[in-house]
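Researcher: Please translate sequence to structure tokens.
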Amino acid sequence: LLLLFHQAEAQNRHWVFFTDKDGVEFDPYTYFDSKTIQKRISMGIPLVDETDLPVKEEYISAVKMISGKVSAVSRWFNAVSVDIPEGKIQEITRLPFVAAISELTMKASTTRTKPFRPEISESVESLRQRQLLSMGASFFKEAGADGTGVRIAVLDGGFPAVDRSPVFKHLRENNRIIATWDFVKNREFVYSYNNHGTMVLTCIAGILGDKNFGMAPGAEFLLARTEVKREVFFEEEHW
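Model: Translation complete:
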């Protein structure tokens, strides 16, 4: 235990920011999903932006040679997150293509979770009516909008029961859960852990019997587990 404690003290996770992406080649049509291309064109967003460009591999390799391991790569930040061993920060700082180094804060607050119960009690029905009112359900109904043709990504702490609950039967039967990924454990299974993602998905697309809980039951979904048991700022690695 003492050994593990000292190892944790001896290295802290940092973002290492790079100066440029000079010479990086990028083809949006092979990199992005077709839905992304459609969305960018329809909204007048350029198909190639500097933040889309991958991080230079030689920069990543050089930092990895010193730190020993790279935890995450962010093309948006043009940075990598690494656990830097004690005494190695200055060595990385001296690399000519390193713009800055910033320590990731480990401040955290505990999240709570309860079992997900797919039942409509009197209190649940009252909550359902209030949330539909607050989310403007009548405007969706008048416009005939139910999310059809829209792809929604939900990033949360987990999605227990989504793979079996009757609330999401319409999504499963119509193959509208397009993909799932647990970025914490690097695997496809997301149907466990904190049920906040399940509650959020219910508010977007849930249906039980003839009662809608959300206004986009016709949408398709990407479900990503990016949160851990304690809310911590280094979750941005998973984003």
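Researcher: Any highlights?
Model: The radius of gyration is 22 Å.
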